[in-house]
């Protein structure tokens, strides 16, 4: 059977494997989940997993890419392209709060994976890094469009607020962390010359 590769539709068995792996890797951790458990839960053999994905490493990458796509789509659906850039910047924090309520009970999948995957060459680490760079670029573009005097430094701080809100919510139990980050972002945006 052919392997699942980026851009190609998954077979029904590969889709089941990816769905099960996504749940298990996120809720239990990548390093604690073996392929036997994924196979059992997906109702396939280990051979099917390796036929479809080639290795656990590739399955981890597929999991992270799927999770990243879900987050980007979720966020994109909540950023009204007709709204002012300033409002879209703030809406990222509203979306984050909603995401954390629905999808994020164990914190950021990318940060968790980056911490778990100790091999600096593991391709999963690159996926996590790409997502964080993408978010910073989103903030940079919106800050520039909103008229920030220095869009890059503002984007850096907004990215840190975003990441900090996830940690505050999931580690410290701050239920309204995204709202608090949104209000801090509003103050920082004004300090960076974004008209309000």
From TrEMBL:
Gene3D superfamilies assigned = Tetracycline Repressor, domain 2 (1.10.357.10)
> DNA-binding region at which residues?
34-53
Q: Which domain of life is it from?
A: Bacteria
> What GO molecular function terms would the record report?
DNA binding
Which residue numbers delimit the HTH tetR-type domain?
11-71
Q: Which UniProt keywords apply?
A: DNA-binding, Transcription, Transcription regulation
Q: Which PANTHER family match?
A: HTH-TYPE TRANSCRIPTIONAL REGULATOR YJDC, TRANSCRIPTIONAL REGULATORY PROTEIN
Return the protein name: AcrR family transcriptional regulator
Q: Native species of this protein?
A: Nocardiopsis metallicus
